[in-house]
Specification:
The protein is built from eleven helices and five strands. With 276 residues, it is mainly alpha-helical. The strands form two sheets. Strands 2-3-5 form a three-stranded mixed β-sheet. Strands 1-4 form a two-stranded antiparallel ribbon. Helix 3 packs parallel to helix 6. The relative contact order is 0.21. Keywords: Membrane, Transmembrane, Transmembrane helix.
Length: 276
């Protein structure tokens, strides 16, 4: 039993190394415009891995630097793959919900006694972390479309197209251009708050799992295997979507303070010449 508690105590840290980071789900939500799938993958993967602040820009730039060679027959299967992705995410969530229900009702803990919701709280607290990660990326980037899919039109038509894109294969999405903005104070505040939540999530899970009583090593292995299964399934789906996103992103550039200063100087010079 002591060995089972040790292994279970390490489970949140192990899952964090295998799981998705808020930056990756944020790219699927903010850049790819697939917040529904990103939310389902975040809910089905009860593990959060944090990146450093400068790695936000590096992760985005990797979309343009890496090439993804996709077999031709996979392109024809894209609609089927989209359905399978949502089914896989739903299955991962169902696995986590059923496991947390069993743990809350059948397992005793040394710290959280008479409370059955702590396992659910730990499992889905990562959704909040991923949400703040998406907000941080939104503050750091500006995404524009290069096609005509979103030009003009009524607001309801725009929302209708955005809803349709949730189930549209990534390879058929409109080409995108990404502008990486300067790091603002609000971005740093949201980023550090996201990191603090990530650390608290790992510590909370470590305390909760290591305090489980009267559990055998065999049961501990089953728990870890089920958690890892959900994490790995969501990881595979997210990796595949981000690989397809590289085919859609056609340009990435940085907005620097020097460029803003030069633009301001040129504008001021043009205004002075106009006055003359």
């Amino acid at each position: 039993m002591a060995s089972a508690q040790v292994v279970l105590g390490l489970t949140p840290s192990i899952l964090a190394t295998l799981g998705t980071s808020p930056q990756e789900t944020a790219m699927l939500s903010v850049i790819a415009g697939r917040p529904l799938l990103a939310g389902l993958l975040a809910a089905g993967s009860p593990a959060v891995f944090a990146l450093r602040s400068f790695e936000y820009a590096r992760t985005i730039e990797d979309l343009h630097e890496r090439n993804f060679l996709k077999p031709a027959f996979f392109i024809r299967l894209d609609p089927v793959i989209v359905i399978l992705e949502y089914l896989a995410a739903a299955a991962s969530i169902g696995n986590i919900v059923e496991l947390c229900y069993r743990l809350g009702g059948q397992v005793l803990t040394a710290i959280f006694t008479d409370d059955q919701y702590h396992f659910f709280l730990w499992a889905f607290l990562g959704l909040v972390v991923h949400g703040f990660g998406a907000l941080a990326l939104y503050l750091r980037t500006k995404v524009t479309t290069l096609g005509r899919d979103y030009e003009g039109g009524h607001i309801y038509r725009h929302h209708g197209r955005a809803a349709f894109n949730q189930f549209k294969p990534m390879a058929q999405q409109t080409s995108l251009h990404i502008l990486i903005l300067e790091e603002s104070l609000l971005f740093f505040a949201v980023y550090w708050f996201t990191n603090i939540l990530t650390v608290c999530h790992i510590i909370y899970g470590t305390i909760m799992f290591s305090s489980m009583l009267f559990i055998s090593a065999e049961d501990a292995v089953i728990i870890i295997f089920r958690l890892m299964a959900s994490v790995m399934i969501c990881r595979i789906v997210l990796t595949y979507e981000l690989a397809n996103l590289r085919r859609v992103v056609k340009g990435i550039e940085r907005k620097t303070i020097v460029e803003d200063t030069d633009a301001t100087v040129e504008k001021g010079g043009a205004e002075r010449q106009g006055l003359k």
